Each structure stands twice: as structure tokens, then as C-alpha cells.
Amino acid sequence: MRERLSRKGFGEAAAEAAVDRLKRSGLLDDASLAGQLRRQAIEQKLLGMRGARLFLRRRGIAEEIIDGTLAYDEEQEAETARRLLQKRLRITGAPETPADKYRLYQFLARRGYISEIIRRVLREYDIGEEE
User: Fold this and answer.
1) Which end of the chain is more exposed for a tag (fewer CB within 10 A), N or C?
2) What is the pTM of this model?
């Protein structure tokens, strides 16, 4: 907030006073904002934990707050990956070629899912790797 106010032309003292006033009133709470952004990243955007971490980082949340907000839950991540895969399969249909399977794998990886979760979810949908 201080940086934004400085970029808008406010002096350092005015920016500091505004931030202090907002914190005292409860309107500027990074931990609360991080929790809201976490829910948005996971529940709405269906991002994996790495994707959620990047989303929070891009929104300017400090790394120590991100660490406190994002606790890894393998089952939750797998469930979110399943929801995203179901959504994608409704749009694209079942993969027919190895290249289609690879595209699905890459799609999930770009959303921040780890390879172990991706492989497990793809196997559940009988879209495993070719032997």
C-alpha cells in the first residue's frame, strides 16, 4: 500500500500515516487478504498449490504470510485437480492420442499441480501414460 501511495505522488509520511490508520481500523490485514486470495485461487481458479503460491506472490503478499496461509493438503489438491480435469474434459472430450494426454498433463502442470498428483488423477480417469 505504501508503494502504491508513493507512486501516486503521496509523501512518505502521508503514506505511512494512511497505512497505520488502515491497519488500526482493520481494513488493511495481509493475513486476511491472503486467506481470501487462497480461497479464490483454489476454489474458483482451481489452481494447484504451486499455482496458488504464485497467485498470492503476484498479488504482493509477503512470503512469510504465504507460508502461513498455504498448508499443503494432498487430498485437497487431488480433489481440486479432479474438478479441473472434469471441467476440461467437458470442453475437450476424452483424449484420443498420446499427444492429447500430454496436453492434459501440461494443462494441469501449468495450473500448479505437482507431477505425482497429475499422474494419479489422470490414472483415475483412465488417462494414464502409455506403457
Assistant:
1) C
2) 0.78
